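> call design_seq(struct)
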């Protein structure tokens, strides 16, 4: 993993950096594996309250490494097994490399600069909050290679980006800027220093009741797929698990006493 990702955990924040600088952090099999392993490990770490994911070097992520494109074998196949095969729960391996950040129990913040193309854009979309430089080059690039976007973001984009915009950018693989990414809903904030702003936001999130933060993320992840009855019921069930518990009481006391909260691990 070390030649693909570096992870540092400090003050309850996991700083995850793609470090394949010579390839603009392009996604090869080793990078997919590293992202999945990192996601699995951090999801089990009760000390982590927020994750920041970024890319070292000139760009966030340039998408799929061209070495991943293989010529057909004698039977006309380029795959060792169908992509429909579920290898990681509801996902296959490439999908899991993105979905792992979506299903992470704590918030994930992406700090994006340079390029976020194809799979790089999809990794960005797996985050809860996305800071991006104005001149970042973005694209849903798959159509250039005669394929469709299949890294799970059809289940993410549709909830934040207008459908006609998604269709146009998918059909044409047209480049768009970081500024446009924010305008259209792909990203959250335009930033001159995405990493610094992401870390500042992470520090703020990490200072809150971790039980409530995790419950809020779970609620927002599930809400689009629930009817009104199910959604209101989920709100109440989650709240019942928070109210009156030590971390919630500490949040109230810290607020009244105008001090930082001293929270235990999320329940």
């Amino acid at each position: 993993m070390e030649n693909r990702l570096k992870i540092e955990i400090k003050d309850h924040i996991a700083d995850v950096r793609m470090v394949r600088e010579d390839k603009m952090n392009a996604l090869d099999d080793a990078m997919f594996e590293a992202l999945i392993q990192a996601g699995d490990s951090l999801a089990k770490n009760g000390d982590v309250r927020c994750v920041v994911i970024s890319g070292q070097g000139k760009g966030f992520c340039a998408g799929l490494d061209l070495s991943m494109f293989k010529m057909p074998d004698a039977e006309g196949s380029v795959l060792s097994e169908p992509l429909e095969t579920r290898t990681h729960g509801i996902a296959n391996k490439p999908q899991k490399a993105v979905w792992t950040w979506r299903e992470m129990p704590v918030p994930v913040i992406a700090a994006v600069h340079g390029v976020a193309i194809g799979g790089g854009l999809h990794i960005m979309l797996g985050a809860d909050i996305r800071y991006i430089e104005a001149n970042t080059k973005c694209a849903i690039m798959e159509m250039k290679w005669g394929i469709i976007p299949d890294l799970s973001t059809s289940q993410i984009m549709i909830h934040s980006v207008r459908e006609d915009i998604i269709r146009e950018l998918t059909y044409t693989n047209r480049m768009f800027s970081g500024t446009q990414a924010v305008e259209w809903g792909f990203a959250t904030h335009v930033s001159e220093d995405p990493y610094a702003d992401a870390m500042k936001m992470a520090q703020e999130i990490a200072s809150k009741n971790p039980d409530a933060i995790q419950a809020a993320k779970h609620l927002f992840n599930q809400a689009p797929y629930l009817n009104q009855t199910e959604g209101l019921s989920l709100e109440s069930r989650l709240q019942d698990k928070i109210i009156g518990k030590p971390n919630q009481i500490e949040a109230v006391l810290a607020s009244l006493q105008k001090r930082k909260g001293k929270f235990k691990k999320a329940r």
